[in-house]
Specification:
Layout lengths: L20 E2 L4 E2 L4 H10 L9 H27 L2 H13 L2 H23 L3 H18 L5 H14 L1 H5 L7 H6 L12
Antiparallel strand pairs: 1-2
Helix pairs in contact: 2-3, 2-5, 3-6, 4-5
């Protein structure tokens, strides 16, 4: 279904759009910031990790990391351009700190692991260049919500299966498409 607020196509089961439009109530969602503060102040054990909202945020960040990693490696190993768009979407959707961490992950791999493994291998050098390219794309600017929506639309056009996996952040979509991807890329648990 198409969002009446931003025009983004959403799965029929979507409760709300990424722009914040609530399909059930037919209105923009307004986050209640006091809920999180009140939960934190009145939590019986005073442990933020037990607050459902914060736990959901942590789980979302972890799933986003898994989706990004699978998409990035699929692009690097299989030259799957739709996976490149998926990896970029995941990075742009991440918080600023998480986005910086994703770019650092790529740069770290490029600096520490790949040069010793690649040697004079042409394919390896190409993969190394693509890894650094993606890190540069992620770090190129301060991304906005609108950039994320634009990249999401590009992913929807490029590959419907990868697009459908962004709502649950399902990294296994890349393994279904490319069953020969290394098993160490599968998320734990």
């Amino acid at each position: 279904m198409q969002c009446p607020n931003c025009g983004l196509e959403n799965p029929p089961s979507a409760m709300w759009c990424d722009c914040g439009y609530d399909f059930k109530n037919r209105a923009m969602r307004v986050p209640d910031k006091t809920t999180t503060v009140n939960q934190a102040q009145h939590h019986p054990k005073g442990q933020f990790g037990r607050i459902p909202v914060l736990r959901q945020m942590k789980q979302h960040a972890s799933r986003l990391n898994d989706y990004f990693r699978a998409a990035a490696w699929t692009w690097l190993l299989k030259r799957d351009e739709a996976a490149h768009v998926a990896a970029l979407w995941a990075a742009v959707t991440a918080t600023g700190d998480q986005r910086a961490s994703l770019a650092a992950y790529l740069r770290g791999l490029a600096a520490d692991f790949l040069p010793t493994e690649v040697g004079s291998d042409e394919q390896g050098r190409e993969a190394l260049a693509r890894m650094l390219q993606l890190a540069a794309e992620i770090s190129a600017k301060k991304w906005s919500m609108w950039d994320g929506l634009r990249i999401r639309r590009a992913l929807e056009k490029a590959d419907r299966e990868y697009y459908s996996a962004i709502r649950p952040l399902d990294p296994t979509v890349f393994f279904r498409r490319h069953p020969d991807l290394p098993e160490w890329l599968l998320p734990e648990g």
